[in-house]
TrEMBL record:
Coiled coil: none
Organism encoding this protein: Chlorogloeopsis fritschii PCC 6912
Name of the protein this chain belongs to: Short-chain dehydrogenase
Family: Belongs to the short-chain dehydrogenases/reductases (SDR) family.
GO molecular function terms listed in the Swiss-Prot or TrEMBL record: oxidoreductase activity, acting on the CH-OH group of donors, NAD or NADP as acceptor
Gene3D superfamilies attached to this UniProt entry: NAD(P)-binding Rossmann-like Domain
Keywords: Oxidoreductase
Length: 257
């Protein structure tokens, strides 16, 4: 098992859900954390909680990954002690709406494409060159079962996650000949704020998504991410698809009454 003690781990979308769960598991293993998200207060609360539990080194960034200039500035202005990033976890992502394509919201489309694809690309483009230069690093992209199987109303979201799958595969090929590893972790149903965000804050509708089902938790996904990162240096876990036992595909779900 590869140690992450004192390694610098950069996590986007770190203020909640899978990002926050990743922060916790890596903090517990002695990593140093760069936590980035838009919600500053949530980030600060998470950092306070982690410091109390693990006394870990944390650097916070209030960052919207959709803003290319902000991403460039954030990476180029990192303090020297935080500049040599060992692990990048591209977790920031979201889904908006379940409209049919011909009835979809342009604003929802832009938000998903700008966050799920372009934001991931911006971070990767600015961080991976340093990994290549230092001859070490690991990029973990949080994808989705939606990148493998489409479902009604998922059109653009599924398209963005299919792009993450292709980008991850392409990055792995482009880094061939270097020791840098690339992994895509693609979960099915995970009970986080995902559905609440999808339905624009409609918590009642979001709750029905998980009714009668035991979904994955954010900790389940973080555990898989941690497993992939801590394999021996010569081992690359290219892709992991994980779903709850109650789910067999994007549309086949066992709901107990």
């Amino acid at each position: 098992m590869l140690s992450v003690q004192d390694q610098i781990v950069f996590i986007t979308g770190a203020s909640s859900g899978i990002g926050a769960a990743c922060a916790k598991i890596f903090a517990g293993a002695g990593a140093k954390l760069i936590l980035a998200a838009r919600r500053w207060e949530r980030l600060q609360n998470l950092a306070d909680s982690l410091n109390k539990e693990f006394a870990t080194d944390i650097h916070l960034l209030q960052l919207d990954v959709r803003d290319a200039k902000a991403v460039e500035s954030a990476i180029s202005n990192l303090p020297s002690a935080w500049a040599n990033i060992d692990i990048l976890i591209n977790n920031a992502g979201l889904s908006r709406g379940l409209d049919k394509l011909h009835q979809g919201s342009f604003q929802d489309w832009e938000e998903m494409i700008d966050t799920n694809i372009k934001g991931l690309l911006y971070l990767t483009r600015h961080i991976v060159p340093g990994m290549v230069e230092r001859d070490r690093g690991h990029v973990v992209n949080i994808g989705s079962i939606a990148g493998h199987q489409t479902y009604p109303g998922g059109n653009v979201y599924c398209g963005t996650k299919a792009a993450v799958k292709a980008i991850s595969e392409g990055l792995k090929q482009d880094l061939l000949g270097t020791p840098i590893r690339v992994t895509s972790v693609d979960p099915g149903m995970v009970e986080t704020e995902f559905s609440e965000v999808r339905f624009h804050g409609d918590t009642q509708r979001a709750t029905t998504v998980y009714q009668g089902v035991t979904p994955l938790t954010a900790d389940d996904v973080a555990d898989v991410v941690f497993f992939c990162v801590t394999r021996p240096a010569h081992v690359n876990i290219n892709q992991v698809i994980l779903m709850p036992v109650d789910q067999a595909s994007t549309t086949l779900v066992n709901r107990r009454s």
